[in-house]
Amino acid sequence: MAWAEGRTDGGFDDWRLPAITDTGASGCDFSSYSGTDCGYNVQTSGSELAHLYYVTLGNLAEFDTSGNPQSGSGLTNTGLFQYLQSHYYWFGTEADPACCAWNFGTIDGKQFVVGKAAALYALAVRPGDVAAAVPEPQPLALALLGLGALWVARRRRPH
Fold this sequence. Notes:
Blueprint (H helix, E strand, L loop, with lengths): L1 H4 L33 E2 L7 H9 L31 E9 L3 E6 L4 E6 L13 H4 L4 H20 L3
Antiparallel strand pairs: 1-4, 2-3, 3-4
């Protein structure tokens, strides 16, 4: 968490690790294969990494919601994330302050709790990252209008 919070990339100082909402259900129920905060095909509304993996990038978990292996699973689409690896990533949410924290596996689409001594990857995020990549129509329209005016002025100038 200190690594992400100490970043100043792009002139921003509000970096953090992704968030997850811990529903408080004890243990991981991998046998359900969907709908919980732990296991495969988890609820994406409470997990920034699960939302990125499943919804934004359209990747599949190792198992479908019935527990059957899925072909084409894993991190097959990284979108615009140039350095996103097929591995396990930390959340900024502890499951137990004495030992464990949440993580998400882009290798298999699994979300679970692991000891803090594990060597996992980290992904720094900040508010507004998604909107920052989308071009805004007003500046684009102004730029096109300016280029058009330059073209008209150049054509009218006598040679």
